[in-house]
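Q: A reviewer asked whether we had any structural model of the full assembly, not just the individual parts. We don't, so I'm hoping you can provide one. Inputs are below.
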Amino acid sequence: MKTKLATQLLVVGGGATGLGVAWDACLRGIKTVLIEQSDLGQGTSGRYHGLLHSGGRYVITDPQSARECAHENQILRHIAPSAIEPTGGLFLSTPSDPPDFSDQWLTAAQSLGLPVEEINVSHALKLEPKINPHIRRAFAVEDAALDSFDLLHDLASSMREAGGEVWLHHQLEDLVIKDGSVKGAVIRDLTTGQKFTLGVEALVNAAGPWAGKVAQLADIDLPIALGKGVMVAMGMRPTQHVLNRCKPPSDGDIIVPVGTVAVLGTTDEPVDEPTSLQMESWEVELIMAEGDILIPGILKQRPLRAWAGIRPLYRPKPTGPHETRTITRAHVILDHGLDHGCEGLFSVFGGKLTTFRLMAEETVDVVCQYFDVEEQCVTDATTLVQAESKTYYHLADRPRKVAEIQPDQPSQQLLCECELVTYSDIEDILTADPSVSLDDLRRDLRLGMGPCQGGFCSYRAAGLAHRLAPSTPPLNYLDQFLQERWKGIKPLAWGNNLRQMELSRRIYQELFAVDTIGDGEL
Amino acid sequence: MTDLIVVGAGFSGLFSSFLAASEGMTVKLVAQGRGGLSLSSGCLEIWRDKAPSRAITKLPAEHPLALAGKDHLYEGLSIFTKLMEDHHYPFSGSVNRNFSLPTAAGGRLTVNQAPVTMIKGEMEQEQPFWIAQFPVFRDFYAEMLPAPLERAGAKVLGIIDLPLFNVAIQRDSYAVDLALRFEDEAWLDEIIRAWRPKLQGLGKVGIPAVLGFENAAEIQSRLEEALNVELFEIPTLPPSIPGLRMERILRRAAAQKGVTIIEGSTAIGRVDGTTGGRRTNGIVLQTAGGPRRLEADAVLLASGGILHGGIIRQQDGRFRESIFDLPLRINHLPSAMVETNPFSEQPYSQVGVLVDDQMRPLGADGDAPMENLYAVGGLLGGSDRIVEGSRHGIDLATAHCAIKAAQS
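A: Here is a predicted structure for the entire assembly that you could use as a starting point for your response.
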């Protein structure tokens, strides 16, 4: 059991904001531990649409956010190049969008100094032949695709290299508050079930949609609202640019090419709980129908899976049960010493993945003031470790990878044909860390993310895990992974997707009887 | 003149064709693809929960097995097992009793009949066994079996890694590649020599199901005698060889009885009949040269359920029978079609064609059946065959019932 542990700063939450805060704090010489109740990016960061914002989306509704996005966009391209595919983006005024909006939008974007260029429609159609041929205007912006799992892993590595620690599967259970300041955190290691107290001098609550629950441990009500967004990944990549509707922010206004797929986003529904991730079929239908306006015919194509993420939004004062999208996306940093008489406790929430570094910088500035540390932030000029040695996984990498696979080497056999994952790809990861789950392999290697949604590779990867990491609980692997994949495709239960679901049942239930594993006697 | 057109080359389509041709009918079998036998364990499932002979008497009246009835099941079953015996691939089992076989994931498959190559895996025998595997083969992982099987009371003695040589392991090798190798006698002699030090006299050994397509029983007994062991096959990730063996035998038997198999052709509709909407004169096929009429006295649909395209669910949530647009049995709301747990009974899987006790689809009004159209197997509604473990029970009984009706 861990006892008498202490750190200067405890960061709660393993998303982009928490890791950004922890990385920044470590670089400024603060002894930092980060805890995450599950795995990196299991919350909002890992459930977004994959867009590095140009800022264009917010030029009218939230100019401050727009400016911040544009600025951070340039910084992230330099510090996290391996997580970013510089696709570029287009704002398209389709016949379904308000015609006078595009002038307003262009004026606003230019006055904010955003790099925007109007391109003529025929050129836009040449760049992206599959877009709606009836668009009226097109504007090029500096959107990009940003893989949040890559970003988070690089942040965690960078933070560790700077002396910090990341404790996964550790949950904050209580706060120790004495004489009006935070002194410790009661933490449970969810893997072993053990509970211990960590001495802390300050705590940053970066728990995203769970931030309200963390603050409640100190009897503080955070001004937070939760908004659920649903996204759909299509089994194709019909566009090379990010495509935006040129209209006020609304449901289904964006398509982001990510790796081998295109992600359609998104919706915005107020929800009460950070776990309210269930999707309704109307949400999926709406997103696909809106996407069809940008790329006619996409409605008839095959969606691979759908998922939902929860935005933690800053809501300064109660405004009644109206739509959460009208709330500004801008972030907030609350010093609960000033506001609530709890010294050393800070909360950061709101904002966007694109602005995580800025949020972290501002948060650590406040923490440094609290600690009397004078170091300045350097994260805007510090390239993440590993970022230089890796390259972003492009669609065009696939034929190269196939060519590199030596056909006569058993270790080069494909275990996941859809995403070209080989035996040795999985072997390398399992050898380095036998505790990784199939879901980790999915995030690291895109295992099971292709058209068959794990139909064939789940068994092979689970088998390999049993071979190389025999202590792994057997059910943890196959059964849970299949259940998770099922949830992702359940809202898309029609056409070939439903056939795919039935094929999975046929293999795993009828042929392999996975449902009988672990249910005892004959 | 064609007496009967059968649509679908899965288990029920092939078996129906064989039955009809055995009764002297002229049969054309039309198939879009290969059918689903590559997904099959190669055993027969009739009813999973309890002894099929008892369970079948207690089914709801509209269940396909209940509609076809016990006699057709028993007759179909005995014709099928006789056929397999004639082709030197005998099955064992009794309708009064199910038994369990280990699966490649450590599960327990409940079956009613198993082929000779698998039968020694029966777990109710409570004999300890070893599990062998080929480490270079990506579709079978023995390490998954011991823990769950032992929890279920089996005694697993250990895992044996067996070498394979002169097998081109490509970046995508399948069980089929290995099974073809086992049919080479000279290669088999080499394998026996290489395996002897590892297997000799070990008792009972489970092995990935790749022991050849043809002569599997012979390959098995040759290995058993040479190595002094008892072997039983465990099906691998699809393509599953024991399923493909059944397909080969059924196809060969149908062809021997004179069935014409037309592959790569999609049935897209019916040739309209003369007496109201109650008769069909055949089907329309989509071929490379355009739609083509294929006429016959009767049509039997064995086009499968959701997985095989016999039933299609559209994006708007509606279900459609893909060839004749037959009325479907739908007992759930569109929003309740998919259960959250993948292994629960799935309402979408129970959507299907409703038939009378001669397997004739009922009309839109739900009463008078079509006169010369039949539907069998997975196309029928009222059953989630995966959860029930009723696949071959339904296929055998409905095929036999339909062919008897078509004959008269």
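A: Points you may want to mention in the reply: Chain A has a mean pLDDT of 89. Chain A is about 35% helix and 25% strand.
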